[in-house]
Recover the amino acids of this structure.
């Protein structure tokens, strides 16, 4: 008789969804070829994972200094001091110095703006993303702000592809939105597997209907990343969490200081 399979081993303890504010975007920026002319609210979350190996951040939010620019662009930002990385960490009794690893899903302005607060953390980003962020194509340049990540003395860990960070926590390449977009697979003790898609999947619609993001570097890879994350979720019995879905934000998402276990 086969031995009973042991329960999965995981270092993950708690998972928090932090409120990084919100902006308005044309829906076709989120869903390629769908919803042109329809403005939608876009929450811009950050995520904190408490583990037995330290606190891990997934994305770092906006650089407070570029918020006036967002207003000028007509994006109607609700991005205040309260939505900054230090303020959101403080709400759960943490400070930037308590972060041991910060994973950047990619380096767009709503994801890499808080790197400045993390001089001591190991900053984990795909090598292809780091390279591209300094020299983007003209069509992608507006979404990067070099001032957000020009910190050569920081502890950058440039990885190349999928990697297990610790038992129960792994990054998987989910590019197409940008050259190095990566997702985070989290194995929680009670909730089970959550896959944070970042901008590989903005909305539930991107997942359910396999519609690629409207902001895209390589559409074919973007589609393959959606199917890759769905496949992983199915295999692991987990769920893919789209990153910028206002309907989920207002209903099903458990927001900090509440948390998933
Ligand atoms: Zn984003």
């Amino acid at each position: 008789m086969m031995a009973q399979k042991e329960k999965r081993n995981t270092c993950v303890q708690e998972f928090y969804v932090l409120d990084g504010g919100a902006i308005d975007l044309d829906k076709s920026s989120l869903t390629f070829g769908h919803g042109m002319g329809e403005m939608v609210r876009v929450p811009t979350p950050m995520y904190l994972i408490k583990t037995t190996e330290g606190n891990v951040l997934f994305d770092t939010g906006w650089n407070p200094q570029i918020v006036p620019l967002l207003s000028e662009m007509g994006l109607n930002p609700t991005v205040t001091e309260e939505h900054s990385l230090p303020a959101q960490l403080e709400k759960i009794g943490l400070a930037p110095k308590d972060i041991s690893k910060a994973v950047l899903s990619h380096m767009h302005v709503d994801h890499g703006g808080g790197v400045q607060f993390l001089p001591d953390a190991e900053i984990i980003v795909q090598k292809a993303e780091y390279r591209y962020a300094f020299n983007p194509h003209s069509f992608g340049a507006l979404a990067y702000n070099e001032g957000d990540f020009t910190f050569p003395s920081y502890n950058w860990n440039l990885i190349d592809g999928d990697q297990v960070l610790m038992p129960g926590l792994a990054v998987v390449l989910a590019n197409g939105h940008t050259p190095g977009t990566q997702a985070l697979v989290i194995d929680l003790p009670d909730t089970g597997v959550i896959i944070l898609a970042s901008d590989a999947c903005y909305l539930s619609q991107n997942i359910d209907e396999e519609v690629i993001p409207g902001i895209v570097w390589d559409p074919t890879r973007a589609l393959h990343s959606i199917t890759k994350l769905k496949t992983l979720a199915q295999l692991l019995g987990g769920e893919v969490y789209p990153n910028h879905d206002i309907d989920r934000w207002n209903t099903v998402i458990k927001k900090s200081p509440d948390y998933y276990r």
